[in-house]
Amino acid sequence: MTPSRFREITSNYSALKIGVVGDFCLDRYLEIDPAKPERSIETGLAVHNVTNVRSHPGGAGTVLNNLCALGIGKIYPVGFCGEDGEGFELRRALANLKQISTEYFFASSLRRTFTYTKPLVVQPGRPPRELNRLDLKNWTPTPAALETKLTRAVAALARKVDALIVLDQVDYAQTGVVTRRVLKMIERAGSKRLKLIILADSRRGLRNFPPFIYKMNRAELGSYLGSLSKLSVAQTQTAAVTLARKIKRPVIITMAERGIMAASPTGELAQVPAFPLRGEIDIVGAGDVVTANIVSALVSGASLREALELAMAAASVVIHKLGTTGTASTVEIKRLLFSGRGKE
Q: pTM here?
């Protein structure tokens, strides 16, 4: 990719409207100072003294954060939180992002706010060290009335955005935003607007998803195919092409240190290597920055290969940001692509 082509693609970002349908959570970081040791008088257990608390949108919110960092003009989250303290923090964090419209983001007394609580030991001169995470989740089906709100939101939103990102983050089906009813509504919206770009990613796999653009890793592709063994690169290529032809949509496969590949419905295959490591890394959020960059680039007229190139540069920026779920701006991506640092 040339600098002029980079400018041509990214100059469109401020005019884009993108919806994100998925499981938004609160990433709450508790910074612990080990230089302030204490022991509980009552239990005798060690006390972790928290000296700073940081809260950011997580889960599908990580995609949202990266769309904001790219300068996307208008971003619409479709999701929910609880009417609890974590929900207050999440809504406040979303409100602080100027490109976000919370018109389709709902608070419900029947849901708990999905929360990742991440204790971090912070010491001068050392990378933050994460302790055991504390999660707050929903374990019961999403209430029907809330599900109806979500389906109506999708129907209304699909008429005015350039793309939809669908991100299923829950461990148990039907307990989050991306329920069967919501998926059917997204599929219906896509059938009415054939040029609407819809990309889906799910931690439980995409086997029961309608034919959107699929994004998954190699293990998820193997699971989708019913394979019990890890797919080789050659097997991954063949499987991706076969699947893309079957669903008549691109299939994007992330391969960690081996980079990323994408197959088109016509059988074309694009593959882009990962950037060399430049120090310690934290891979949390890498998949979400890839999603945000691929969708933004495709809507702006990029080819599959160009979208993958931008996504790999963005992922390299993010994994080198320690102790936080980072983002990558167009300035940072451009610097890595064209300064030569990525080739060191």
A: 0.92
